[in-house]
Design goal:
The structure holds two protein chains of two kinds. Helix content of chain A is 81%, strand content 0%. Chain A contains 14 helices and no strands. Chain B is mainly alpha-helical. Chain B has one domain: ABC transporter involved in vitamin B12 uptake, BtuC (Orthogonal Bundle). In chain B, strand 1 and strand 2 form a beta hairpin. Classes of the chains: A mainly alpha, B mainly alpha. Chain A: This is Manganese transport system membrane protein MntC.
Chain lengths: 316, 300
């Protein structure tokens, strides 16, 4: 624990710590919507697809600026979303195959470009490979600032468009009937996923950022049936995972932040699976035992009652 | 010589992944292939740490175990009410994270680094030789992949009818008494084997490409299962050759180039396939429309 306070004593580390918490919070919030729209793996695909976008942005400009990466990743994300939709609509392949195809070919391209950059003379390329698994401790003040601003932006958009996103999550047809531009809103949600991916690329890395979009939302779903509560819980779980991930990975040398954050989120998930009040395993077992007991009791009453009657009959 | 071994390794990867990939695509569980290819990671690392060698049999066994564990966990969470894609996402990210952490913590013991996980080491395949009594028998990876290919071909060949029925109509298969669940787990076992033997050569994430892309390409080209399997292997081998050539010209990652080549072949099939391609379908539609209007005009 003392280790925790020494970390917080370092001002740069403190910023990184809060930045990662905010990142976990915002991806947890966005993840709730993608989970309810049954698009969890789309987040995974978009995260992998961001890699070539980031590489191309770096190759064209030669600077490691999160703003430029955002543009590159967003363009790649748009192409990827379009590709998934196009393959699903215009061939007999189903969405899962389309996701797999887009994910692996984009990531393959990203790896090619990454090795291309490493072999070529792109001066300041060091650290670009850290984007795969993330290294929170290597971030500097301006990175953290951008990341925090982006995360805050995501949460704000979700708060402002809560009603619209809620509608398209549960009943897109009804939303269309009410006159909302569902296509635009869906595209916007995808865009927010891309922004979350780019915000997290330095801290968690493209390979595992999808977990921050999926796991907290699934965990939150175990605790509640209300969307508002679920989003708050999911955000809280995400923030907790981000905090734990940063803390643990910065205290052990050579440990990438992404995997640790994911494991923290998974721990929360396992706890939720066990302890969730209605769907949790424990709650289900208790309910089963109670039903069984009451059933046996009723049966016993019937049994003894019929037994009494039979005894009476023979006696009579 | 190194060219020959790299191409042979790549082709064997393409064949192993191509065969099982067909069944993944047909059963609409392509993303489970993605999940398994990520989650065999901790199995491989733990096997390294326990056995202390890169002994292929131990590794294979551990990876098989983790592959089946992944399938089992995904099924378990799905039955407990989580959407299928979310349960896939939760399970594989967690297991992959464990694998990456183990690699970072014990990097010195396992001789594996994060690059090897992602890119594979196909370029160094001919350095890691298998020696019997001082006589070199060729690269280890080739032997491993060869044995895997034989096992996959044998299992699929023996139970071809059952796998076929399970792929197209699991309900009918169950009705006539085929143990569908057993065959599901058997397929998952084969996927895990294909993944772990390909893992060292092409890396964790690009295995997915070899599993899904050639099989999907073949799916767009034919309506017959036997043909689809052959085409899937052919596409995989073709992308290996094209990708290796491109990687030499561009001086870039071999595995990455192979997957990119596979992606390009997919795009070509998507556009140009004679039966299911975009262009041929457009032409057919146009012809149909012309015929209909002509018939309509004649009727009037």
């Amino acid at each position: 624990m003392s280790n925790f306070f020494t970390m917080l004593a370092d001002p740069n580390m403190r910023w990184i710590f809060f930045g990662c918490m905010l990142l976990g919070l915002s991806s947890g919030v966005i993840g709730s919507f993608t989970y309810l729209r049954k698009q969890s793996l789309v987040g995974d695909t978009l995260a992998h697809a961001a890699l070539p976008g980031i590489c191309i942005a770096f190759m064209l400009t030669g600077v490691k600026s999160i703003g430029i990466f955002l543009i590159g990743a967003t363009l790649a994300g748009i192409v990827a979303t379009f590709g998934i939709g196009y393959i699903t609509r215009h061939s007999r392949l189903k969405q899962d195959a389309a996701l797999g195809i887009v994910l692996s070919s984009f990531f393959g391209l990203g790896i090619v470009l990454l090795t291309f950059i490493q072999h070529g003379d792109y001066g300041n390329q060091a650290g670009l490979d850290k984007f795969l698994f993330g290294q929170a401790a290597a971030m500097v003040g301006s990175d953290v600032m951008t990341m925090s601003v982006m995360s805050a932006f995501l949460v704000t958009i979700c708060a402002l468009l809560f009603k619209q996103f809620k509608l398209i999550s549960f009943d897109p047809g009804f939303a269309k009937g009410l006159g909302y531009n569902v296509g635009l809103l869906e595209q916007l949600l995808m865009l927010l996923v891309v922004v979350a991916v780019v915000a997290g690329v330095q801290a968690v890395g493209v390979v595992l950022i999808a977990a921050l979009l999926i796991t907290p939302a699934v965990s939150a779903r175990y605790w509640t049936n209300r969307l508002g509560t679920m989003i708050i819980l999911s955000g809280a779980f995400g923030a907790l995972s981000g905090a734990l991930g940063t803390w643990i990975s910065s205290s052990v040398s050579n440990l990438p932040t992404g995997p640790v954050t994911v494991l923290a989120a998974t721990a929360v998930f396992v706890l939720s699976v066990l302890l969730g009040p209605e769907r949790g395993l424990l709650a289900k077992r208790i309910l089963q035992a109670r039903v069984k007991r009451s059933f046996l009791k009723e049966n016993e009453v019937l049994h003894t009652a019929s037994g009494e009657r039979m005894k009476g009959e023979t006696a009579g | 010589m190194s060219d020959f071994w790299i191409l042979l390794t790549g082709s064997l990867v393409a064949a192993c992944c191509g065969i099982v990939g067909v069944f993944l695509v047909l059963r609409k569980i392509a993303m489970i292939g993605d999940a398994i290819s990520h989650s065999v990671m901790p199995g491989i690392v733990i096997a390294f740490l326990i056995s202390g060698t890169r002994d292929s049999l131990v590794m294979m066994f551990a990876a098989l175990l983790f592959g089946l564990l992944t399938t089992f966990l995904i099924g378990l969470f799905q039955r407990s009410g989580i959407q299928s894609d979310a349960s896939i996402g939760v399970v594989f990210t967690a297991l992959f994270a464990i694998g990456v952490i183990l690699v970072s913590l014990f990097a010195r013991q396992v001789h594996l680094d994060q690059d090897a996980i992602l890119y594979g080491e196909i370029a160094f395949v001919h350095w890691n030789l298998w020696e019997v009594g001082g006589v070199s028998m060729g690269p280890k990876a080739v032997w491993l992949l060869g044995v895997t290919l034989i096992v996959i071909a044998a299992v699929i060949g023996l139970f071809y009818k059952q796998f076929k029925l399970c792929a197209f109509d699991p309900a009918l298969a169950a009705a006539i008494g085929i143990p569908v669940a057993l065959f599901h787990y058997m397929l998952m076992g084969l996927v895990s084997m294909a993944t772990v033997s390909s893992f060292e050569s092409v890396g964790a994430i690009l295995v997915v490409g070899m599993l899904i892309i050639p099989a999907s390409t073949a799916y767009l080209l034919t309506d017959r299962l036997g043909m689809m399997i052959s085409l899937s292997i052919a596409v995989g081998v073709a992308s290996t050759f094209a990708g290796y050539g491109a990687s030499i010209i561009l001086d870039a990652s071999i595995a990455g180039c192979i997957v990119c080549a596979a992606g390009l072949l997919f795009v070509a099939a998507f556009l140009l396939s004679p039966s299911h391609g975009l262009i041929s379908r457009r032409l057919r539609q146009r012809k149909l429309a012309a015929e209909t209007t002509a018939n309509g005009a004649r009727a009037v």
